[in-house]
Amino acid sequence: MITFNQVTKKYSSEKTAVKDVDFTVDEGKIVVLLGPSGCGKTTLLRMVNRLESITEGSIVIDNENSMDLDAIELRRKIGYVIQSNGLFPNMTIEENVMIVTDLLGWNKKKKKERFNYLMKLIGLDPKIYGKRYPHELSGGQQQRIGVVRALAADPPVMLMDEPFGALDPIIREKIQDEFLQIQREVKKTILFVSHDIDEAIKMADKIMLLRDGEIMQYDTPSKMLSHPENEFVNQFFGKDRAIKSLSLHTVRNLQEVIGLAEMDESIYDTKTINVNQDLRNTLSMLLNQEADQVIVTNDQDEKIGSITIDLVQKYLHYEIKGKMSVSQEG
Amino acid sequence: MEQWARFLEINAPRILELTLDHALLVSLAIVVALLIGVPLGIYLTTNEYLAGTVLQVASVTLTIPSLALFGIMIPIFSLINKGIGFLPAFVALVLYSQLPIIRNTYTAIKNVNPEMRDAAIGMGMKTHQRLLRVEIPNAMPVIMAGIRTAVVLNIGIAVIAAYIGAGGLGVLITQGISRGDNYLIISGSLAVALLAIIADGLLLLIQKRFTTKAVVE
Question: Which InterPro entries match (chain B) (predicted)?
């Protein structure tokens, strides 16, 4: 758990980078710091492992004030991933991954076991890749190594500064999915900086939107999209925020709430999608007119119904309006 | 050709001996220069204020004409009765090597990718760990380039040290000039050139041997 208590960062008396930031990242959750460039999100992140000093306030990590610890010790307890992965070209992949455990003085056997485990997490063969140098790997593989390097000493907290920002969109999505999979297993408390709205919606348990060093809204992605607290949040997520919010829901959610349509056996031009597909992709598929009928299949590949644009619209209406009436009552 | 053969037959042992003297003077000077310059260059990366001053002083030293610097050495070392000979030449060469060595070491480490440095600090490396594990290994090609520059520079300048009685291949050239003996001048000059080329080649080999392929690229 990371708690920010009235954290302020001033570079000079006029220049305030972060102003009175007060929030908590719950244990095992991903909080994405989102905002336009210069909003203070990276500064806020770097204050956690004291790469930036704190002018006022305090940051408490797992009940310990970050200022009470030695900076070196503190950093070794926090996983740190940066955009351009920051791998050291003079070290092999194994040496790179195991740096922090090395600094902490782990023995050889323990390091080897940990390395094998970590490489398995990202699906790279430790025997093949361990001896290679970073430049012999693709950009995506390097970034995966950057992530597991941060996980090496099993730190409870991780800081990720636009970790997937330098990757091309296809690889980025794949690595995001992989990372969420890993997170389900390791359950770290993660602070994640991004300027990509879609990435934030996908990765975050909660999003913190910042402007000029101040919190604009701190909420779950769906709340943020359906109930922006002010004009800035509204504009930041854009006119298509309803469409964006669809990526938070799957066909299964829709099926559970309003049910699927009957299949029409007389239509031959059909396509199938999995029930776990998100609604944003589903809607794109429907709008592209890729087939006359889109059939939904379950995990066993059995056809369980069909889906139409009308159904998506109905679901969206229910999601946004439905929740709104509840919150107004409450 | 016949005359060359005869010249070499008589002078070969002397040329060899002077070449060895020359190589010895330069290598000793470089070893000492390295012991001073590399640690100093590394230290300066952690002390910006001192860095400017030291690099300035080293720059000025290199602009002093070599003959003048040897000249300055004579009165200074006369104080301990060593005004001419090996010692003043050795000290002058050490001074000359400082700029390429310090400056290259300093710039090489300063220019290590800032993200790499950021990652190293963020993972909890102490200053010396960061220097030894990350910055110096990645700065190695540029540091070595500075050392090679210093070696080649010194092999050339050591020729002039013959004027203050330090021996070396400069003896052949100065004698050749005063006697109008082309054989001496040419053999001395070629030996110096050859020595410089061989030394540079050797250092390049060492550099390649001790840096990982990834760093060179």
Answer: ABC_transp_perm/SBD, MetI-like, MetI-like_sf
